[in-house]
Write a structure and sequence with these properties.
With 346 residues, this protein is α/β, with parallel strands linked by helices. The chain contains 13 helices and 10 strands. It folds into 2 domains: 157 residues, Beta Polymerase, domain 2, CATH 3.30.460.30; 140 residues, Rossmann fold, CATH 3.40.50.720. The protein has a 6-stranded parallel β-sheet, with helices on one face. β8, α12 and β9 form a beta-alpha-beta unit. Keywords: NADP, Oxidoreductase, Porphyrin biosynthesis. Pathway: Porphyrin-containing compound metabolism; protoporphyrin-IX biosynthesis; 5-aminolevulinate from L-glutamyl-tRNA(Glu): step 1/2. Homodimer.
């Protein structure tokens, strides 16, 4: 409840994504899942801030908050400073930190578009709905949301469901994982292809499901938690290997799709050179969909190796985007209708 004389809390969003910021900068400011509860407490603890939600995925980092500042730009500047200090960015890295700063209706509109998959690299992406929901639940559990953000995020989920149910924007390849498999299919005959998934999170699960539906010959899953690797491999009819054994099995596969939460490179040039010698330099496709990246970019310089990171998948995603572009107008109309319904003024 806002007391008489107090300034009503103002909604804002500070963000950066695959359009504004390259992966080598995004990975510097990505929040590990285990650190998000701490991060939302830090955001709410900034002077003048009252609520906070932190959304951090492979394609975006966004801070949603309410504040009591008279000047919204001062609140945005406080969030930029927080990111620079939190991740100890050097001056040149801070300079490359290109963000978008949204207030009130624009912040709400942006969140509605994100939840609906309209702001994703893959237009109509489905995973983002669950990622936003998880980010909100984390903030809710940490006690950093109140009336404004609770209402906003519930409205966003309602809009996302409406877009999904009333349009065909989410038909076809609607995830980074499925686009990664599209790329693998262009390079190899999946029915003759051996694939290794390094990591057993939701992104890897999407890849595995897409690989299975297209008849991949064999799927190997490796993950730090062996139980999760076994669970996914069993579900997909594949094979699980322990995380300390996957390097020894690399020469047996044709495609590696890596999506771990490691804060550093897990696939390095010296390892891949050894693998390629054992393969007698037969082509090896490596798709790195992790942020921070799992694969040292220098790997791409090795003969016979074709490395694609998350940003390199954008061209493939754009092909599907053109096919679904016609639905975009309908989706935007739904969002504008819902903004009016929920009382947001442009």
């Amino acid at each position: 409840m806002v007391e008489a004389g107090q300034v009503s809390p103002q909604l804002l969003c500070l963000g950066l994504n695959y359009r504004t910021t390259p992966v080598e900068v995004r990975e510097r400011v990505a929040f590990p899942e285990s650190k998000v509860p701490e991060a939302v407490q830090q955001v709410r603890g900034l002077p003048g801030f009252e609520e906070g939600v932190v959304l951090s995925t492979c394609n975006r980092v966004e801070l949603y908050a309410t504040h009591s500042h008279d000047q919204p730009h001062a609140a945005h500047d406080a969030l930029v400073s927080y990111l620079i200090q939190r991740f100890e960015l050097a001056p040149e890295q801070a300079e490359a930190l290109v963000t978008y700063k949204l207030d009130a209706a624009e912040a709400a509109r942006h969140l509605f578009r994100v939840v609906s998959g309209l702001d994703s690299m893959v237009l109509g992406e489905t995973e983002i709905f669950g990622q936003v929901k998880a980010a909100y639940q984390t903030a809710l559990g940490a006690g950093t949301t109140s009336r404004t953000l609770n209402k906003l995020f519930q409205q966003a989920f309602s809009v996302g469901k409406k877009v999904r149910n009333e349009t065909s924007i989410q038909r076809g390849s609607t995830s980074v994982g499925s686009v990664a498999v599209d790329l693998a299919e262009k390079v190899h005959d999946l029915k003759q292809c051996r694939v290794m998934l390094v990591g057993a999170g939701e992104m890897s699960r999407t890849c595995a499901q897409s690989l299975l539906s297209r008849g991949a010959r064999s799927i190997i899953v490796s993950n730090r938690s062996h139980d999760r690797a076994v669970e996914m491999a069993t579900e997909m009819g594949g094979k699980a290997i322990r995380f300390d054994e996957w390097e020894a099995a690399l020469h047996e596969v044709d495609v590696i799709i890596s999506s771990t939460s490691a804060p550093h490179f897990v696939i390095k040039p010296e390892l891949v050179r050894d693998v390629m010698r054992k393969r007698r330099w037969e082509p090896l496709l490596i798709i790195d969909i992790a942020v921070p990246r799992d694969v040292d970019p220098q790997v791409n310089e090795i003969e016979g190796v074709y490395l694609y990171d998350i940003d390199a998948l954008q061209a493939i995603a754009d092909e599907g985007r053109r096919e679904r572009q016609k639905q975009l107008t309908i989706c935007e109309e739904i969002i504008e209708e819902q903004l009016t319904k929920f009382g947001f003024m442009a």
